[in-house]
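Contributing new records

If you add data, match the layout below exactly. Sequence lines come first and carry their own label; structure lines follow with theirs. Keep one chain per record. Anything else will be rejected by the validation script.
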Amino acid sequence: MSDDSYGVATASDTVRLERRLPGPAERIWAYLTQPDKRRQWLADGTMDLRPGGTARLVFRHANFTDEDPPARYRAMNETGVACEGRILECDPPRVLAMTWPGDGESSVVRFELFPDGDRTLLVITHSRLADGDAMANVSSGWHAHLAVLAAVLAGAPTPPFWSRITALEADYRERFSRQ
């Protein structure tokens, strides 16, 4: 598995992405759960890390990219977009599962961390997705966000984000249409 491998559809409403990231599980856990670290690659916001707790996410991608976004994502770069989910499972530093707000019914994201020597395998499973478009959208988003996370963890320059999203979404649409 490369550091930029594509996610796979594991069911008609579920995608799974895996990344081996530098550092112990506790370090990766901090980048999933602590707002000051999470905002560097995904979203700001607080999490009440207990089943039933609120996960408030504030997406403001200008926190980690200077690229101009496509029009449909402009608010995510400039003013930010806030949403709330619910924590479904929390077992630090191994499992975090939460509802993921979206159009219509919430989907579910599950983060699993597995120690792997001096690295950690992060597995993201995003389920209860409405259709193929939603699967391509979230897969391209996770793919691009994980590239940013890997760079942050390695102390490397942030890779392109928005230009990558557009290409990845087309790639994922093609991949999922063949399944």
